[in-house]
Design goal:
Strand content of chain A: 15-25%
CATH topology of the largest domain in chain A: GMP Synthetase, Chain A, domain 3
Radius of gyration of chain B: 18 Å
Structural class of chain A: alpha/beta
Distance between the termini of chain A: 40 Å
Number of domains of chain B: 1
Helix content of chain B: 55-70%
Number of helices of chain A: 4
Oligomer: heterodimer
Structural class of chain B: mainly alpha
Helix content of chain A: 10-25%
Radius of gyration of chain A: 18 Å
CATH class of the largest domain in chain A: Alpha Beta
Shape of chain B: globular
Shape of chain A: elongated
Largest sheet of chain A: 4 strands, mixed
CATH architecture of the largest domain in chain A: 2-Layer Sandwich
Largest interface: A-B, 25 and 34 residues
Distance between the termini of chain B: 36 Å
Number of strands of chain A: 7
Number of strands of chain B: 0
Amino acid sequence: MNHTKEHIYSLLAQVTDPEIPVLTILDLGIVRDVICTQDNAVEIIITPTYSGCPAMDAIAFDIKLKMIEAGFTQVKITYTLSPAWTTDWMTEAGKQKLKQYGIAPPIERSSRLNKLLFDQDEHIPCPQCGSTNTKLLSEFGSTACKALHQCMDCKEPFDYFKCH
Amino acid sequence: MKNQHLINSVLHIADNALILGQRNAAWCAHGPILEQDIAITNITLDLIGQARNFYQYAASLINEADNKNETEDTLAFLRNERDFKNLLICELPNGDWAQTILRQFFFSTFQQLMYQKMMHSSDNQLAAIAAKSIKETNYHVKWISEWVIRLGDGTDESNQRMKNAIEYLWNYTGEFFIAADYESIDVAGLKNEWLEKVKLVFDEATLSIPENKFMQTGGKTGVHTEHLGFILPEMQSLQRNFPGVEW
């Protein structure tokens, strides 16, 4: 069987993040390359989001499963650390899906990330009502990639996918 | 020899992250409030993830040099006290929330400066791990600095607890900057910048840097406090009871 790169990417587009199932691994920008070595052999190169993200092992397993289902007999998952993953690689479609799911997407480019101490907190638009009258509740949230905010208008607390 | 130095320095950095991560993990379900319980354990998750990357690299170097079969797990779970090269400050007890916060502040501030150097290492793998890790550490430094200020410039009680924590921990900060023979990063050269960063936050927190000069050392060469001897049996209990067991 002959597999094109496009075909493999269309398969990868069916693998989702176990913590945020509306996002595919392509939306997240963690697939760095695909190498078809032989007819039924493929190497998928992925990069972790956060160093300790426990979803990575599950994602690698799901990729393997998806490829085996599609007829590959040899599947190799390779991790690469450089260049370091950034939320800049998240697709626009992914950001829209996050918002509809109730998670505020990262709002700015990581290069503009404020690194200074004592900076003002960002006012992240509420994914429910769109208000920017929001506040940070906690820098750390339910997963490594999220922080907890609250809308002061509709009063709903919400997760924010941190700029990284 | 050059390779052995590299292996030891990678293990030293991995051990710092693992042992401090193991310590902080004990806060899980015991944090002062839910959000901060989640915060300190999220920092722990980053530290353990960084430790894994360094251990994996160390294992590949060891296996290449000695034809061995080390893995990240054997390095974490099958070594003894004298083999661990972590800084003494990482293995000290958590104490109260002030002591945990201050220790993480001292450590993260140092780690940030160290990663800034390591990002430009001629060793590609070290540079890659550092460039990845520093994004996490930058976030830790911001959160932890705000907590030092909140507690130092808080109530009489929280201020006193921070002073007690400074008294207990200060003598363990010198070890950051005293290089072991295997270290290639000029850690001594990071001292002034570290002191400036600590002073900036301490000024806001109405805290002062102690005068005392005596500094504890030994961790980098495997000479530890009595505390590491209690951390390891707990952390390694599964492998000690069932050698080689896998899930």
